[in-house]
Write a structure and sequence with these properties.
alpha+beta, five-stranded antiparallel sheet, four-stranded antiparallel sheet, 12 strands, 41% helix, 22% strand
Length: 342
C-alpha cells in the first residue's frame, strides 16, 4: 500500500510539473492510472452494494466513486504540498478549477559550498549521529550532494580531534521538537526539584536547547501566564499535543541558556559558603572560588550565589550543608521539608 501511494504521488507530481496549462480534476483522474483503477474498483463495490435498487445502482456507484476520488485527490495534493511542491490553483473563465506546478516555482537555485561551509554542515550532521535526527541529517547531506556539493569535499571527514555529540536520551525530546516546529501546545507532567510528585503543565513550546549535557525547553506556561524553562529529564510520562493554537507571541530570540544559567547562579554577584562531603559534589567544586579541607570527610567551599542555587543544592541531598547566607539555608531547608513531606 505504501509503494502504491508513493507511485501515485509521483505520477501526480509529474503530471502537474509537465503540463503547460492548468489541469482539472477530471483530466488528472483520466491521466493517472492509479486514479483510473481506483475509480473502477469503487464503481464495482458501490454497484454491488446497490443491486437491490436496480434503477439507481449506476448513479449511486458513480457518486460514490466521485466522492472517493475527491477525497483521495485532496489528500494527495496536501501530501505533495507537505513535501514542498508548490501547486497553484487556477480558475478558468468558465469557472473550472485547474492545477499545475510551475517548474520555476519548484526549482532550487544552484547550491555552491566551499570546503569550510561543507565542513560546517558535516559537523552539524555529526552532532546528531546518536539522536533520532541522524536519518534526517544524513538525508539532507545526500540532497546537497545531488544539488552540487563539491565531489572533492567529504562532509563527514574529521576536521579536528574532537567528535561532537549531543546526547538525546529523553523520550520527550522528539514530540517536543515536533511541537516546536509545528507550534502546537503540549501538556506534560513535570517534577520540580523541590516536589515529591509531578504536576501537570500546559505549555506553548518555543525552543529546545542543550546546555552542559542537559536538554531544556523554553516556552509559555499557560497556567502561570509567563515564560518558563523546563529540564527534559524532569518530564515524566508522555508528552500530549493539543489542537489549539498559541495564545502568546513567540519572541524573536529565546534565551534558553541565559535563563538556565541565571537560575543556576552563573550570573551571581554574591557568594555562599557550604560544607561538602570530600568525595561528592564535583559540579559544585568546579564552580567553587575557594576550597578548604575541614577534615572528617568534609570540605568547605565558597560558591557563586544566584537565583536557583537553592534548587541545585537540594539535588545533592545530605552531601551538602549550607552555612551562609541564612536566606539560602532557609530556602534549601524549605525545599527539603517539602520533598520529605510528599
Amino acid at each position: 500500500m505504501a509503494i502504491a501511494k508513493a507511485e501515485r504521488l509521483m505520477n501526480l507530481a509529474l503530471c502537474l510539473l509537465g503540463t503547460r496549462r492548468p489541469l482539472s480534476k477530471r483530466e488528472l483522474r483520466e491521466s493517472i492510472e492509479a486514479y483510473v483503477e481506483a475509480s473502477g474498483r469503487d464503481r464495482s463495490v458501490a454497484s454491488g452494494r446497490d443491486r437491490s435498487v436496480a434503477s439507481g445502482s449506476e448513479k449511486g456507484a458513480a457518486a460514490a466513486s466521485d466522492d472517493s476520488f475527491n477525497r483521495m485527490f485532496e489528500r494527495d495534493k496536501d501530501d505533495l504540498r507537505e513535501l514542498g511542491l508548490v501547486i497553484e490553483t487556477v480558475e478558468s473563465l468558465d469557472g473550472e478549477v485547474g492545477y499545475l506546478a510551475r517548474r520555476d516555482s519548484n526549482r532550487l537555485p544552484p547550491i555552491t559550498l566551499d570546503a569550510e561551509e561543507a565542513a560546517a554542515l558535516g559537523l552539524a550532521a555529526k552532532v546528531w549521529q546518536q539522536a533520532r535526527l541522524a536519518g534526517a541529517a544524513s538525508g539532507a547531506l545526500q540532497k546537497l550532494r545531488a544539488a552540487g556539493l563539491p565531489e572533492d569535499v567529504d562532509p563527514y571527514e574529521a576536521h579536528g580531534a574532537l567528535e561532537p555529540r549531543i546526547p538525546v536520551h529523553e523520550a520527550a525530546f522528539e514530540p517536543l521538537m515536533l511541537a516546536c516546529r509545528d507550534r502546537r501546545p503540549v501538556v506534560f507532567d513535570y517534577r520540580k526539584a523541590n516536589a515529591a510528585q509531578p504536576g501537570t503543565r500546559h505549555v506553548e513550546p518555543w525552543a529546545l536547547e542543550c546546555w552542559r549535557g542537559h536538554w531544556y525547553l523554553a516556552g509559555f506556561d499557560r497556567d502561570r501566564g509567563a515564560e518558563r524553562v523546563f529540564r527534559l529529564s524532569r518530564i515524566t510520562g508522555r508528552v500530549r499535543s493539543r489542537g489549539s493554537g498559541f495564545t502568546a507571541p513567540v519572541p524573536d530570540v529565546v534565551t534558553v541558556r541565559e535563563t538556565v544559567a541565571s537560575w543556576a547562579g552563573e550570573s551571581a554577584d554574591r557568594s555562599a559558603r557550604i560544607r561538602l562531603r570530600a568525595d561528592a559534589g564535583y559540579p559544585l567544586r568546579a564552580k567553587a572560588t575557594a576550597v578548604r579541607e575541614l577534615g572528617d570527610g568534609w570540605d568547605e567551599l565558597d560558591i557563586p550565589y544566584g537565583h536557583g542555587l537553592d534548587a541545585w543544592l537540594v539535588e545533592f541531598g545530605p552531601d551538602v550543608v549550607v552555612l551562609e547566607p541564612a536566606e539560602l539555608r532557609a530556602d534549601v531547608l524549605d525545599r527539603l521539608r517539602a520533598v520529605a513531606g510528599g
